[in-house]
Amino acid sequence: MELLGSKPTRFGFGDGLVELGERHSNIIVLGGDITGSVMTSLFRDKFPDRFFSIGIAEQNATTIATGLALSGKIPFFASYGAFCALRNADQLRISVAYNEANVKIGGGHSGISVGPDGATHQVLEEVAFLRTLPHMTLIVPADYEEAKKATVAMGEMVGPAYIRFGRSPVPLFTTPDTPFVLGKANVVREGTDVAIIANGALVWEAHLAAVELAKRGISARIVNVHTVKPFDFETVTAAARECGCIVTAEEHQVHAGLGGAVAECTAKNAPVPIEFVGVKDSFGGSGEPEELMVKFGLTWREIYASALVAMERRDTGSSGVRAIKDVPVYTA
Amino acid sequence: MTAETKRSLDFNDTTFSNERRAPEELAPIANEIRRDIIRMLVRAGSGHSGGPLGSADIFAALYFSGVMRYNPKDMTAPRDRFVLSAGHMAPVMYASLANAGCYPKQEQETLRKYDTRLQGHPGRDMHLPGIETSSGSLGQGISIAVGMAMADKLVDKNDRRVFTLTGDGELQEGSVWEAAMAASHFKLDNLCWLIDNNDCQIDGRVPDVMNVYPIDKKCEAFGFDTIVVNGHDHADLQRGFDHFLANQKNGSGKPTAIICQTFMGHGVSFMNDKFEWHGKPPSKDQAVAALEELSNY
C-alpha cells in the first residue's frame, strides 16, 4: 500500500453521485440543508431538475425517497449519519427496508474524526443499527476512490443501501483500478500471523501497524471489509483459520459494528481470539481529528498492541479460553 | 339464529366495478365493505374494528366513484395510487380491493393468518394487488404519498393522482406535518389527503390524549386547500373529491385536504362512536348481530 494523497471520503460520495447522474436519468437527489457539507451540492449544481431540497426534515426526506423509489426513481438522500441513520431509524426500518424500496442513503460526518463539532455530530452507533436491517446493504469505504466506486455501485444495485463517509481528509491509497465488488472484502495485504480486519479510515492505520509488526518479523494480513452487509463470511473465515487470531479496527463503537460482525462470523466458523479496536462505549468530543483519534485509541498503535495481545492469546490458549494473566477480562 | 344469519358470515362473490358512479349508488357498496370487515375480523380473532367500519364510506367513494383510476385486473399498470398511512385500518382497504375484484373475495378469510397476503398491517412483501406500500408505523404513509406525487408531477410530469389517508390521532406524529409542509412547498395539486376524523384513538378521545384541533386551520396554515365533509354522506364526500379534481385540473398548485368527519364503528350501533372498539374484533355473537344490522342498513 502506498500513500497517494489525502482527501475526505465525502468528496468521493459527491463525485460518485455526479457520475451516477450522468449515467442514469432516474437518479434523484434529496437535500437536507447541509448539501455543501455532504457534497450533494455537486449533483444539485449539475442536475438542478433532479434535485429537491427537503429542508431539515430527515424523517420526511427518507419517506419521500421511498415514494420516489416506489415510482421507479433511484433517490439518494444524504445528511449527517446521526440524522439520516438514527433520527429516521423507524422510517429506514418500515418504509425503506421492509418495503425493499430502492432508496440510497449517504451518511456523512461519521466517526469522531468529525472533529470540533463534538459528540452530537460524531455518529458512532449507526453501523450497529443498520446491519440488523433485513435487505439493507451497508458500505464503509476506506478512502476517496473507494467511496466514489461504492457510491456508483450502490446506485446501480437494486435495493436499500447506505454509505458511511467522513468529514476530514483521510489517506488516499487506492486507485481507480483497485478492484471493488460490493459484498467482497479486499485482502489488501497478505499475512499469516495475525489478521487485521478493518474498514473506513482504520484500514490505513492497519497498514501502518502491519509495517511496524513486520519489523518484528510478524506477518499481518489486512482485510478491508468495505461492505459490512452483506458480510463476506468466506474471506473473514479464511483469515481466521489461516492466521488464528484477529484484530478488528473501526471508527465506531466496539459494540455491534464491524467487530461484532466479525465475532458473529468467527464464533460460528472459526472461534479464534479477537481484539477489538474502536471507541469503547463512550461519546466523542470536540478537538482536532488527529487529537481525537489518539484520545479514543483509533491509531496504528492500538492495532499494533492488539495484534500482540491477540497472538499471545492464541499461543497461550488454543482458543483464548484459558486464563491469561496479563490480559484483563474483556468488558467493553 | 336463522340459517340466513349464519350464512351471512360467509363471503360472497359479488364485486363492483370501479366505473364512475353517482353518490347514491355508493351506500350499498360501503355496506358490503362493512360486512366483509366484520366477516374478516371475526375469523381473525384480532384486529381493528372501529376505524375500518367508520371509514367504509370514504373507501367506497375512493375506490368506486371513479375518482381513483385503476384496473382491478392489473394493479401494476399505470394507475392512480392510494397509500394507507393509518396501516391498522388495513381491513377496510382489503375489503375495498376484494370488492373491486383485485383479488378473490374468499381470500379475505385469511386476514392475519400464517403466510397470508392480508397481513395485520399492510406488507408490500406479500404482493397483494393494490398494496402500494407497507405501513403501520404512523405518520409515514403521507410522506410516501408526497414522494409519489413528486415523482408524478415534478419528474414524470404525468396527470396521475395520489391519495393518502391518515387518522386524526395520527396527526400527533410530527412527521405528518413535515410531509404537509413539503406537499404545499412542491405545489402538489395531484395529492389528496383524506383525514378520518372520528375523534377516537386507543386511549380515548383525541383531544384528551393529545389535542390536534383545529385540524382545518392547521391544514390551511400548511398550504392545503382544506374542506370539511360528513364522512358518511356520499354527496358530501363527492363534493370533497370534486374540490380535489378541480385543484388538479386547474393547476391550482395546492394540495387538497379532505377532513372526513366520521363515527368510529359506524353502521354497527353497539360500536358507534366508542373508542373501545379501536383495536378489537367482534365475538361471533357480536358479528352475527352486526351483520344482521348491516343487512337492514
Would you mind describing this structure in some detail?
The complex is a heterodimer of chains A (332) and B (297). Chain A has 332 residues and is α/β, with parallel strands linked by helices. Chain A has two domains: 5-172, Rossmann fold, CATH 3.40.50; 186-313, Rossmann fold (3-Layer(aba) Sandwich), CATH 3.40.50. In chain A, 40% of the residues lie in helices and 19% in strands. Chain A contains 13 helices and 14 strands. Chain A has helices spanning 9-23, 35-38, 40-46, 58-69, 81-86, 89-98, 126-130, 144-156, 202-215, 233-243, 258-269, 289-295, 300-316, and strands at 5-7, 27-31, 51-53, 74-80, 104-108, 137-139, 161-164, 170-172, 186-189, 194-198, 220-224, 227-229, 246-253, 274-279. In chain A, helix 9 (202-215) links the parallel strand 10 and strand 11 (220-224). Chain A is globular and about 60 Å long. The model of chain A is unreliable at 320-324 (pLDDT under 50). Chain B has 297 residues and is α/β, with parallel strands linked by helices. Chain B has a single domain, classed as Thiamin diphosphate (ThDP)-binding fold, Pyr/PP domains (Rossmann fold, 3-Layer(aba) Sandwich), CATH 3.40.50.970. In chain B, the strands form two sheets. Chain B has a five-stranded parallel beta sheet with strand order 1-2-3-7-6, sandwiched between helices. Chain B has a two-stranded antiparallel ribbon with strand order 4-5. Chain B is globular and about 55 Å long. Chain B starts with a helix and ends with a helix. The relative contact order of chain B is 0.17. Chain A binds chain B through residues 28, 50, 52, 54-55, 57, 59-60, 62-73, 75, 90-91, 93-95, 98-100, and chain B through 83, 123-125, 132-137, 139-140, 143-152, 154-156, 174-175, 178-179, 181-182, 186.
